[in-house]
Amino acid sequence: MDRRRRPDGEDGLVAARGATGHGYATEAVRALSDLAFDFGVERVEAHMDPDNAPSRALAERAGFVLQEVRQDMHDRPDGVRRPGCVYALLSGLVRVN
Predict the structure, then answer these.
(1) N or C: which end of the chain has fewer CB within 10 A?
(2) pLDDT 10s digits, 58-94
(3) How far apart are the C-alpha atoms of 32 and 20, rounded to whole Å?
(4) Where do the domains of the chain lie, and which CATH numbers do they carry?
(5) Which pTM value belongs to this model?
(6) Where are the strands (E) in 1-97, listed by range?
């Protein structure tokens, strides 16, 4: 690792349908983000499809803030380009939720 480069990180999660609605994902995202910050990461990002309301709500519950919507971020399995939301959480910020 190049020591001159600031450490950063990205957060990703897939949850089974039956496991939703219990707060497990929110707790996991918060714990993994805190662990990343403990290791010196200064910014954790979460990327998701703008139409994925549950994932967007999870990011916001975990304290992430929408930074931008990129219009040409990823490919669907059928090859169609899709936009993507970029949420971020910065080290040292106090979570209000």
Answers:
(1) N
(2) 999 999 999 999 998 878 888 888 899 999 999 887 6
(3) 18
(4) 9-90 (3.40.630.30)
(5) 0.78
(6) 9-11, 43-48, 65-75, 81-90
